[in-house]
Design a protein that fits this description.
InterPro entries: DUF488-N3a. It is built from seven helices and four strands. With 145 residues, the protein is of the alpha/beta class. A four-stranded parallel beta sheet has the order 1-4-2-3.
């Protein structure tokens, strides 16, 4: 059986029908604290794959400080990632947290069984960095990596 496809999108693109995702794909939210309307846009949500609350809060605080220094929203968001070491810390979380590991294994099994998945959260990645991209890379890597 062929491995399922793996895409990523953001909730506003889905809600406004501008997302280019396979119609048969399962929309998997990867948000730690989703809003009620987020649940209506996805088929399921896996909170364990959202960034940890402390990392989100630290990144948000850094972005707010950068905006006060004159950065626009997108620049502040992206610069805050560098400032707090978001990518390396999120990858470490994925490697060490038992719930995240179980969730990753479950998604890998679904992909291996031929199911197509779309990872969904709030960020528009044409302008802002997002943990979905890290998840997609993680789930796309070869088993020996």
């Amino acid at each position: 059986m062929a491995r399922g496809t793996l895409e990523e999108s953001y909730v506003a693109a889905l809600q406004h029908d501008i997302a280019d995702v396979p119609s048969e794909a399962t929309l998997v939210g990867v948000v730690r604290q989703p809003t009620a309307w987020f649940h209506g846009a996805v088929d399921e949500n896996v909170p364990a794959l959202g960034p940890p609350d402390d990392l989100l809060e630290e990144t948000k605080r850094a972005a707010e400080d950068l905006k006060l220094s004159g950065f626009c929203e997108e620049e502040a968001h992206n610069a805050s990632w560098e400032q707090v070491g978001f990518e390396s810390r999120y990858r470490e979380y994925l490697e060490t947290d038992d719930e995240a590991q179980a969730a990753l294994t479950a998604l890998e099994d679904r992909l291996d069984s031929g199911e197509s998945l779309v990872l969904v959260c709030f960020e528009n990645t044409t302008k802002k960095r997002c943990h979905r991209t890290i998840l997609r890379e993680w789930l796309s890597r070869e088993p020996s990596e």
